[in-house]
Design a protein that fits this description.
Blueprint (H helix, E strand, L loop, with lengths): L2 E6 L2 H8 L6 E5 L28 E2 L5 E2 L8 H12 L1 E6 L5 H14 L5 E3 L7 H9 L6 H28 L10 H17 L4 E11 L2 E10 L2 E2 L24 H13 L3 E12 L7 H12 L3 H13 L15 H14 L43 H16 L5 E12 L2 E12 L34 E11 L8 H11 L7 H10 L3 E4 L2 E4 L1 H13 L6 H15 L5 H9 L5 H8 L5 H4 L1 E2 L7 E5 L2 E9 L5 E7 L11 H13 L3 E4 L6 E7 L2 E6 L11 E3 L11 H8 L3 E5 L5 E7 L2 E9 L2 E6 L11 H8 L13 E4 L8 E6 L2 E6 L2 E4 L11 H13 L47 H6 L32
Length: 934
C-alpha cells in the first residue's frame, strides 16, 4: 500500500509526530546522522586504504572532498529506511531546521536515492497545528546550509586530526585538540593562572546592629572622617596590597578594635537618607545559551544534561526547538503568554503592550523563535504530567516566557548614612513597590553570594536627625578571594560573548573537555588539570592563533558568511590549511622543534621541583643526593585532588619527603598484627593494611569517603574502613543487611540470597561506620531512583556472577533496562510485563558489544564489580575523531585504560567514590601523611 514516508532523527520525535499525521503517512527515525567521515581505519573503504589522506577522511589534494561512510551501527538503519521507501509515493525529510538537520536530510537523500518526489518539511515545535502548517509549506533542501555545515565539519576534522597526533607525540597519548575546545580549555587555564598568581590581602571593617522604633537593622562602616574604608576591590590581586594610587584608609585589627570601642558608647545620628526609585524590566525568553546558563545556575544541570532534557521536551511536544539564538516570539506565543499572565496573575501584571526583544549576541542565527512552551496555549507546569528534571526545566522555560510579557517591576533603593564618633556607617535597603514580573521569574546570577533582585531588604522609617539605638558593634577581618573558577554557566556566557563556537555545540565541548581529562567538574566549578596547562602552553607557543579568542571568533564569523553565500567555502579551506602559512605546513615545520621533555613539563613558579605529565597523570620530579653520594631522580605522584592553583612549595615538599621516607604507620591492627598505613595515590588518599610483598601483592585497601580529611583520620576509623562491609542485621523479609563503601560512595545493601541484592546510597548525614539497621531499613524502603531522578518501574534481579541489579525504567525515548552505567532500549513489542531478566541480560550485552557504553562500565552479566573494589573498564581500540555538533576533535584512538591500570605502581589505590554523599568519620589528631609511590 502506497504511503508517504516521513523521516525524522529520533524514535521519540517519530512517535510524537505520528499522532498528528494521517494514517497514510509512515514515520521512521534515522537515529541521527546516517553518514559521516570515517572514525577509524576499519571504516575506510578498501578502495581508499592506500591513500595518504584516507585517515584524515578529507582529500586535501582534490578540492577537500570529504570521504563519507556509513558507520557499522547505522547500516541496519539505512537498510530499514530503504525498505520503507520502496512502497512510498512521496518522501518528506523532517529533520531539525538547522545546519545539522539540513545536513542529515542531504545525507539521507544521497544514500537513499529516492525515485519519488522529495520535499523538506520543517517546523520548530511538534504540535498538531505546527505539523499541519509544515505539511502545507514544504520546501527544497537549503544547500547553503548544507555547505556551511560541511565546511564546519571539514574544518573541525582538519584541526583535530592534524593537531591531536602532535599532542600524542609531545605530551600524552589519547589527547585531543579542537577548533573551539582548545580555546575553551585556554580560558580555564588562564583563570587558574590568575588564581595561582593571586595574593590575598587583609582588611578590617565594622558592622553595627542598630534599632529604630523597635525594628532592628544593620549598617556597615564606610568612612572614617573623610577617608573611605578599603574594601576587597581596592586590592591588587598580584601583590596582596592596595592598588597603586588608591586613596582609601586600610584599617588594621588594632584600629578596628579602637574604633569599635569608640562608636559603641557614642551617640548615633542619621546624617543622610536617599531614596532612588528604579525600574527593572524582564529579561528576554530563552535562547540555547541562556537556557544552559540559567539551568546551570538554578537547577545545577550541566550543559549536556540541559540539552538532553530540552531535546526530550521538544520531541515530546512540550517546548519549541531548543537550538536557537533568537529571542523573538511569534504572535501565537505572545498571545499565549499574555493569556497566562492575565489568568494567573491578573491584568495589572500585564505589560501595556506585547514585548519583543532583539538578539545582541555576536554571530546570532535567528532562524527560529526563542525557546518557549509549545502550542497556541501554554500548559502550566502542573498540567504537564512531567516530573524530575523534565518538570524543573519546563517550569523554568514556562516562567521565563510568561515573565517576558509582564509589567516592569518598580523598586525603591534606600541608602541611609549614620554617623558616630567621626565614623560613617551605611545601611542599604530595597523596597518593592510593585512586583511586576518578579511574581513569576527572577534571573539568577553567576555570583553565588549575590542577592536576587526580587528579595526585599526592608529598613525602618528613618529621617535626618534621628538617633537610632546601638545594640552592638562587631569588628570583622576579611581576606580577599582569588578570581572564581568558571562554572559551566560562566564559561558558556564567555564563549557566547566572544563569539566562539555555536551555542548548540557548547554542551558537547564542555563534555569533551571533562571526558578528556582537561578539567574536572566539582561543586559546579570547572578546574583545569595539569595536562590542560601543558597542552595550552604548547599551543600558545607554537600555534598561538588557534587558541586566540579573536582569531577563533573571526573564523566563526567566516563560517557564518559561508552559510549565507557571502564567502566561498573552498578558497577559505585552501587558505586555512595549505600554503606557506597553512596549518598543515605549520605542523610539519614546527614538529621537529617541539621538545617532548619540555612539552610534558608544566612550569609553575615557586616550586622546589618540576611538574611533569606522565603516562599515568601528573607527578613531581626533583633531583636529590642518595646515601652513597650519587644524584638520583625522585618522583612523587600528584593526587588528582591537588589543583594547579593549590600546589605550593609546602605541599610539593611534603609529597616528595613522604615519597623518599616511605609511609608512616597509623598503628597496628590488633586482629592481624599488621601495620595500617595512610597513603596517597593518583586517585587520592586511602588506607592499607600491611605492605606490598611477593607473598601479598594486593594488601587490603579502602578509599577515604569523599569529604573526609586525611589528617583527621584515626586508627579506629581506618580499621573500620578496612573491615567494611559491616553486617547490620537481618531484613524483615529475610536476608542480611550490610553497610559498605563502593566506587559510588557509601551504601547499604539488602542481600536477598541467590545473587539478588538491593542497594541504596547513604545520605550526606549518614556515617558508613555508624549507620544502624533501622536507618538502613528506612533507606532500603525508599523507591530506587535512576539517572535524572527517575524511579525504576521494577527490579528484574541480579544476573548470576554479578552484584548489581538490572532495573526497568521509562525514559524520554521509551522503556529501557539499566545495569550500572549501561542502558539498553526495549525492542518494539516488548512491554514492562513481558521483559525477563534473561532478555535484559542479552540486550545489555549486545549494547556493550556495540561499543556504546561498554567503555564506561561492564555490561551484561559482568556489569558490576564488587562495590568496595576499584573498577577499571578497559577502553581499548579506537574512538571517534572529529566532531558532530562541536568544535572539538576527538582522538582517533585512545590508549587502553586496562593497560594504564596494570602499569600503576603499588601506591595506586582504588579510585575514591565519585558520589558527593559520603559518610562522616570521627576526627583525631593531625598526623603527617605519607604519599604513595609514583
Amino acid at each position: 500500500m502506497a504511503h508517504t514516508l516521513v523521516i525524522v532523527e529520533s524514535p521519540t520525535k517519530a512517535r510524537t509526530i505520528r499522532a498528528f499525521l494521517p494514517k497514510t503517512f509512515r514515520v521512521e527515525a534515522s537515529m541521527g546522522h546516517v553518514r559521516d567521515l570515517p572514525n577509524n581505519a576499519s571504516e575506510i573503504p578498501a578502495a581508499h586504504k592506500g591513500e595518504k589522506w584516507a585517515n584524515l577522511g578529507v582529500n586535501t589534494a582534490n578540492g577537500f572532498e570529504p570521504l563519507y561512510v556509513v558507520p557499522k551501527d547505522k547500516k541496519k538503519v539505512v537498510k530499514e529506511l530503504k525498505d520503507a521507501l520502496k512502497d512510498a509515493d512521496q518522501l518528506l525529510l523532517a529533520t531539525d531546521e538547522d545546519r545539522e538537520g539540513e545536513s542529515i536530510s542531504w545525507h539521507l537523500l544521497q544514500l537513499l536515492g529516492p525515485k519519488v518526489p522529495v520535499k523538506r518539511m520543517v517546523f520548530h515545535e511538534i504540535t498538531k497545528e505546527a505539523i499541519g502548517r509544515a505539511l502545507d509549506q514544504t520546501r527544497d533542501l537549503d544547500m547553503e546550509l548544507v555547505h556551511a555545515q560541511e565546511t564546519r565539519r571539514i574544518l573541525d576534522r582538519l584541526v583535530g586530526y592534524t593537531l591531536s597526533p602532535l599532542l600524542w607525540k609531545k605530551v600524552a597519548w589519547g589527547l585531543s585538540a579542537g577548533r573551539v575546545q582548545s580555546v575553551a580549555v585556554r580560558l580555564l587555564v588562564q583563570r587558574e593562572r590568575a588564581r595561582r598568581a593571586f595574593r590575598s590581602g587583609s582588611y578590617w571593617d565594622l558592622k553595627a546592629r542598630l534599632e529604630q522604633t523597635a525594628l532592628p537593622f544593620e549598617a556597615k562602616l564606610t568612612h572614617v572622617g573623610a577617608e573611605r574604608i578599603a574594601g576587597g576591590s581596592d586590592f591588587d590581586e598580584t601583590t596582596g596590597g592596595l592598588k597603586s594610587g588608591s586613596k582609601v584608609k586600610l584599617l588594621s585589627e588594632a584600629e578596628a578594635a579602637a574604633l569599635k570601642a569608640a562608636v559603641e558608647t557614642a551617640p548615633w545620628r542619621v546624617a543622610a537618607v536617599e531614596e532612588k526609585p528604579t525600574v527593572r524590566k524582564p529579561v528576554p525568553p530563552f535562547t540555547t545559551s541562556t537556557l544552559q546558563q540559567e539551568a546551570n545556575r538554578k537547577l545545577r544541570l550541566s550543559a549536556r544534561d540541559t540539552m538532553r532534557t530540552a531535546q526530550a521536551l521538544y520531541e515530546r511536544g512540550f517546548i519549541t526547538y531548543m537550538r536557537t539564538d533568537s529571542v523573538h516570539l511569534s504572535d501565537q506565543a505572545l498571545t499565549a503568554a499574555r493569556n497566562c499572565v492575565g489568568a494567573m496573575y491578573g491584568k495589572e501584571f500585564l505589560s501595556p503592550a506585547p514585548r519583543q526583544f532583539s538578539t545582541k549576541a555576536r554571530n546570532a542565527q535567528e532562524a527560529h523563535e526563542a525557546i518557549r512552551p509549545a502550542g497556541e496555549s501554554f500548559r502550566t507546569p502542573k498540567d504537564t504530567g512531567l516530573d524530575g528534571r523534565d518538570l524543573a526545566l519546563y517550569e523554568l522555560i514556562w516562567k521565563r516566557t510568561v515573565a517576558s510579557q509582564m509589567a516592569d517591576a518598580r523598586l525603591t533603593l534606600l541608602a541611609v548614612d549614620i554617623e558616630a564618633a567621626g565614623a560613617t556607617f551605611r545601611a542599604s535597603g530595597k523596597r518593592i513597590d510593585f512586583a511586576g514580573f518578579f511574581r513569576a521569574y527572577v534571573e539568577g546570577s553567576d555570583d553565588p553570594d549575590a542577592a536576587l533582585e526580587g528579595q526585599e531588604v526592608l529598613l525602618p522609617s528613618l529621617a535626618v536627625g534621628d538617633s537610632p539605638l546601638c545594640r552592638g558593634v562587631e569588628a570583622l577581618g576579611h581576606q580577599t578571594q582569588p578570581p572564581a573558577r568558571y562554572s559551566e554557566a560562566a564559561l558558556v556566557k564567555t564563549l557566547e560573548k566572544e563569539g566562539i563556537g555555536r551555542p548548540s555545540t557548547y554542551a558537547s565541548i564542555i563534555g569533551t573537555i571533562v571526558d578528556r581529562g582537561y578539567a574536572t567538574l566539582q561543586n559546579n566549578s570547572l578546574t583545569p588539570s595539569f595536562t590542560a596547562f601543558a597542552v595550552t602552553a604548547l599551543l600558545e607557543e607554537h600555534f598561538p592563533d588557534l587558541v586566540d579568542t579573536a582569531f577563533t571568533s573571526k573564523m566563526e564569523h567566516t563560517l557564518d558568511e559561508i552559510s549565507t553565500g557571502k564567502v566561498s567555502w573552498l578558497p577559505y579551506l585552501e587558505t586555512f590549511y595549505k600554503g606557506e602559512k597553512g596549518l598543515e605546513t605549520q605542523v610539519q615545520q614546527r614538529e621537529g622543534d617541539i621538545d617532548p621533555g619540555i612539552s610534558r613539563t608544566v612550569v609553575l613558579e615557586g616550586l622546589p621541583c618540576v611538574v611533569r605529565i606522565g603516562r599515568f597523570g601528573a607527578y613531581l620530579e626533583t633531583k636529590r643526593v642518595a646515601d652513597d653520594g650519587s644524584e638520583e631522580l625522585l618522583k612523587a605522584t600528584l593526587p588528582q585532588e591537588i589543583t594547579p592553583a593549590d600546589l605550593d612549595a609546602e605541599k610539593a615538599e611534603l609529597l616528595l619527603r613522604q615519597k623518599a621516607e616511605g609511609p608512616e604507620s597509623l598503628g597496628e591492627d590488633p586482629e592481624t598484627g599488621e601495620q595500617v598505613y595512610l597513603l596517597f595515590g593518583q586517585y587520592g588518599p586511602y588506607v592499607q593494611r600491611g605492605q606490598v610483598s611477593e607473598e601479598v601483592p594486593k594488601p587490603k585497601r579502602a578509599s577515604l569517603p569523599k569529604g573526609v580529611k586525611p589528617e583527621d583520620l584515626s586508627l579506629e576509623d581506618a580499621l573500620g574502613l578496612l573491615r567494611l562491609p559491616r553486617h547490620l542485621g537481618e531484613h524483615p523479609d529475610g536476608g542480611k543487611v550490610q553497610a559498605g563503601l563502593g566506587r559510588f560512595g557509601p551504601y547499604v545493601v539488602h542481600d536477598k540470597g541467590k545473587g539478588e541484592k538491593d542497594y541504596r546510597s547513604l545520605k550526606a548525614e549518614d556515617d558508613v561506620l555508624a549507620v544502624g539497621l533501622s536507618r538502613a531499613l528506612e533507606l532500603l524502603a525508599m523507591p530506587k531512583k535512576g539517572r535524572g531522578g527517575r524511579t525504576a518501574l521494577k527490579d528484574l534481579g541480579v544476573p548470576e556472577g554479578s552484584e548489581e541489579a538490572i532495573q526497568l525504567f521509562d525514559g524520554p525515548y521509551g522503556l529501557y533496562v539499566k545495569q550500572g552505567k549501561v542502558n539498553a532500549s526495549l525492542p518494539e513489542g516488548t512491554t514492562a510485563e513481558t521483559i525477563s531478566l534473561e532478555q535484559a541480560v542479552e540486550l545489555l550485552a549486545a549494547k556493550a558489544a556495540s561499543g556504546k557504553g561498554a567503555s564506561r562500565s561492564r555490561a551484561g552479566t559482568k556489569a558490576a564489580a564488587k562495590p568496595a573494589a576499584r573498577t577499571s573498564a578497559a577502553k581499548t581500540g579506537t574512538t571517534k575523531a572529529g566532531t558532530t555538533k562541536t568544535g572539538a576533535a576527538k582522538a582517533p584512538s585512545t590508549r587502553s585504560a586496562a593497560a594504564k591500570a596494570a602499569g600503576a605502581t603499588t601506591a595506586a589505590a582504588k579510585k575514591p567514590p565519585a558520589t558527593t554523599k559520603s559518610g562522616r568519620l570521627r576526627a583525631s589528631a593531625v598526623r603527617v601523611i605519607k604519599p604513595a609511590a609514583s
